[in-house]
Please model this.
Amino acid sequence: MTYCLGIKTRWGLVLASDSRSNAGLDQVSTFRKMHTLVLPGERAFILCTSGSVSLSQSVMTMLRQDFQAGHGLAEVDSLYAAARCVGEQVRRVAATDREALERDHISFNVHLLLAGQLRGQEPDLYMIYPQGNPLRATRDSPYLQLGEAKYGRPILDRGIRFDETTLEEAAKYALLSLDSTMRSNMTVGPPVDLVIYGADELKVRWHCRFGEADPQWRTSHSLWDQARRQAVQSLPEIRFADAADRQA
Amino acid sequence: MTYCLGIKTRWGLVLASDSRSNAGLDQVSTFRKMHTLVLPGERAFILCTSGSVSLSQSVMTMLRQDFQAGHGLAEVDSLYAAARCVGEQVRRVAATDREALERDHISFNVHLLLAGQLRGQEPDLYMIYPQGNPLRATRDSPYLQLGEAKYGRPILDRGIRFDETTLEEAAKYALLSLDSTMRSNMTVGPPVDLVIYGADELKVRWHCRFGEADPQWRTSHSLWDQARRQAVQSLPEIRFADAADRQA
Model:
């Protein structure tokens, strides 16, 4: 399983991803799911992948190869065109692999998040489906998730507001969302990659990776547990009507 | 969809359930999913149901009919026997309905939570599967969920400890868990039923029902949003290594 998320606010972008991959519960390994393609000062892309590692590797290999040759994401003229470029690459891999997979009842499963910015344009965030079509994050729905999305969603719903949430706050929410998910689903696991991209930086300046034993990660984890318990205790007591006679 | 949960601590039991039922998104209705069977001073049972409303109604109708005639749950001699009694009733409904349902590719889906106490014994909490077999909550896993369980689980994982969590706290966690779930899945909806059962009460004394407009519910909802935001803000800033030169 996988859990990745992207957040878009007026100040920029935050991306976070886990690193666990599994084929069944008895075959677990670690793969990085966050990738960057950057022409400093010109354009910066951060991609996260979920689904089959084999398929996402093929997509990323071809995207990077084109990029380094000055094509593909190196020459698109908008983030929308970038999302379409990624989608086209997904479709090329589908053309190569989908039939062989489906013959053995394996679904063609690869999703991507694409975040980034071109010089002179706004930063933006897209999801690309296995069919190649893109979905854009909006002011009303300023975050997108891949994979095991449910455990980590309530905290995002409560916390993320396009016009209000700073990038530093968004990064904390992203880590807490990952933390909640890793606690409940053991097929989502560390290390966690985190990128904060501030609008107009046009390079990937703030990237970090948290292992399970990372002191920052552990401190944040236990402080959050404490803070949350205190928050619950601070809620007013529930007022009950005495229901002794009800037996409906 | 449905979301119900039961919590067992050393001080007793907390049960909470939503009331929304849907057959597709265009057919939504309200059904109470929490039921009580009580012989005051002797035995008290609280049941929550998920799955097909038709099936859970059949199970509850027969359980109540037997109970009122002094049989079934009125004469079992332990909570384990009570869970088996509910399971037997599920199997009788399966014998009546399962074949007809499966002929039309409808799965036989009914899950129940059974919480309660017999005089002189400990309170206890079970889940009963559609196959009729029971699962008991334990000190290590002191809560059980039915239905749309993922959204509301992280807060329970962090908050509920058999030996530490008071019933009042457990009730707050239960409501927050419901609130998170209703926010993310519109097929889980109000009113919310909540019961706190203190050990040795042997009646259902504290029951309440929150509609969407209930002032207590709304206050708790917005205070929790505030408290949670403050808790996130209180976390230490993330320390990044400057990653400007990394483009892996």
